[in-house]
Amino acid sequence: MERLAIGSETGRRLQPAPGIDRLVMPLPFQGLDRVNAYALSDGDGGISLVDCGIFQEGRGAGPLKEALTASGAALKDVRRLVITHPHPDHYGLASLLVEKTGCELWMHSDARADLDVYRDPGAAADTLSAALAHHGVPASELTELRAYEDWRPFISGVVEASHWLEGEELLTDGARSWQVIHTPGHDRAHVCLWSQSDGLLISGDTLLSSITPHVDHRGELGADPLGDFLASLGRLEELDPSLVLPGHGRPFDAGAERARAIAAHHQRRLGSILQVIRRRACTAAEVAQEVFGPELLHYQHRLALGETIAHLEYLRLRSEAEMSEKDGIYMYAKAKR
Ligand SMILES: [Zn+2]
Fold first, then answer.
1. Residue ranges of the chain with pLDDT lower than 50?
2. How far does the centroid of ligand 1 lie from the alpha carbon of residue 267, in Å?
3. Is residue 304 part of a domain?
4. pTM (two decimals)
5. How much distance in Å is there from the Cα of 246 to the middle of ligand 1?
6. Is the Cβ–Cβ distance between 105 and 70 less than 8 Å?
7. 177: domain range?
């Protein structure tokens, strides 16, 4: 396979490969203060944009415009927007961009469920609270956790795709052909873009260099986001990308190695959780406290709960853990062999 000639570190950061500009935009979150979008030139003055950054009241499309200008392009050049996953930091400006440019919007069809949460966060919070109550989260904490279901301040509107993706589609831009790879786990609708000819992977939040992507679980039994995520990592490892263009942070090489390291992190966590439920049956809320510590801030608490349930359900669905129910509360224990 022909491999990419990589330029200087500075050049590589902002133009990681010919015809690709990395656009870095600010985020209003502590600990995660930037997001990347990628502008793919079609060789004819137009661009496909992969992700578009977050919406913040009063700033409109400003940060995206500035980033495009710095790369020598303009908003009007955007002919297509591909969303790796519909989280606000990647999808936030989508409706504004479609309205201003009339561009196509490509997104995986499983994103419809995420869009429903944006449309009716109250209903989503009710469903989530009911599910988390079964996992042992006390009513007093549920009230606080409800707040994290309403992301409307960070999206310019809810816009549907003009092209719903299922995975494996081909997107041709200039000299390059990108294959859509469905990589559920971080979000059920997550897709990566893979350019086989030069080993380039636009990875969204499925492969990040210094962060382990969050794997959430909304508490309803049977969903297996961690199983999905590990399968997605396996697929990316097989592709063996030579250069990864992530949703946060700088481009990096050795994508297969990073995929293995992230999978190993989850295997270790599965091991620690089995240790906890080997001693006695616990609720997910209790396991989260033991594994992540008791003094989490509210949003970290929400993330820790989702992550813990994802691991417990992964173990239960593979008969490594058993679940019993008492007075509507789910208790997990290591399976007896
Ligand atoms: Zn992200």
1. 1-9
2. 23
3. no
4. 0.94
5. 9
6. no
7. 9-264
